[in-house]
Amino acid sequence: MRDIDWRIIYELYQVKNITKVADKLFMTQPALTKRLQSIEEEFGTRLVNRSTKGVQFTKEGEFLAHQSELYLQFRSGISRRMEAFKDEGVGTIRIASSYSFSKLYLPDLIREYHKEFPNISFDIQNTKSHNLIQFLTDGVSDMAFVRGEYDCSLYKKKLLTEGAYIISAVPLTMESLAEEKRIDCILGESSRKIIDRWWEETFPQPPRVSVTVRMVDISWEMAKRGAGYTIGFFEPWQLEDMDVFYMPIFYPDGSPVERNTWLIYSDKVAGSPAVRRFIQVAEERF
Prior knowledge:
By secondary structure, this protein is of the alpha/beta class. The protein has helices spanning 3-15, 18-24, 29-43, 59-88, 99-104, 106-114, 129-137, 189-202, 216-224, 236-240, 273-285, and strands at 48-51, 54-57, 91-97, 120-126, 143-147, 155-168, 181-185, 208-213, 230-234, 245-248, 258-265. A hairpin with a 2-residue loop joins strand 1 and strand 2. It is rod-shaped.
């Protein structure tokens, strides 16, 4: 039975008149009668008897009429509670994020957000930035924190810009870099293109890659322990605590090698008060 079927049974039991109920529910009398017949066919029994005095409910019809009142109260309660959830902030926000952003920034964002919306839960999906846009377009995520430049038709807000640095256990010079062993990390497509462009514009030969890893944390740790140098994107405060030699890199024209981080989402999810507030928390943080 549909919601309208329960409403028909309930209203008809109150007034016992098909014409009045049809008017109240903005239906034609034939349409209401057809729905009533469909309900009787569904249960395989007669619910009402029609006469010149109106309708009289059968024993089965009276039972269903009482149940209709309970159902409508139950359905109304669900609707009211679902509306209340929007104001209270109950539910799940699905976030797609690069590994490094999840580690460095998401914990503080979620902690700050939970001060206002403690009942919201988070589902975090981590992958390389070039896959994150697809998570949004496929509806897997509500929003994404994306490193680098990717074309999309969604809303984008730039959160931060990081500079590219050489990281090593010992001091290095730009002149000797081409001869040093490099620890490479498999980055997102955009981040990789930035580093490759800088290298190709700076050195005539390819780098001496001795180790390739999948996680930036591992490349940093290997560089700290003297296995070679690595290249990463950082804010200055991150480098101060790493106890390593670090050196910013620049294109031949003197401009810094940098990478932007974006918060990307659709206008549909931004209509949710809970999601909209999380977007505001992220904007305020950066």
